[in-house]
């Protein structure tokens, strides 16, 4: 079974190599798209981190606001 998979993987690799050699323009476009996807993935990761930070900051501000409201209501 493993030998069969190795043979299939080898065929797939050869097909990819042949396709790239047969159409270098397409290969270049695919590479460009991969790079753009990588860049967008990095941006998405950074945005996710920033969102997490902002959500945490928002929770802290809500807690502070609630504490201030509670203190204000006790003074009344």
UniProtKB/TrEMBL annotation:
Name of the protein in its database record: Uncharacterized protein
Segments of skewed composition (Basic and acidic residues): 13-22, 32-43
Region Disordered, residue ranges: 1-49
């Amino acid at each position: 079974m493993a030998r069969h998979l190795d043979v299939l993987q080898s065929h797939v690799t050869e097909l990819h190599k042949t396709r790239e050699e047969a159409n270098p323009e397409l290969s270049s476009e695919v590479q460009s798209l991969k790079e753009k996807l990588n860049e967008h993935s990095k941006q998405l990761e950074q945005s996710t981190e920033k969102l997490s930070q902002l959500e945490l900051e928002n929770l802290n501000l809500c807690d502070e606001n609630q504490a201030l409201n509670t203190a204000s209501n006790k003074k009344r």
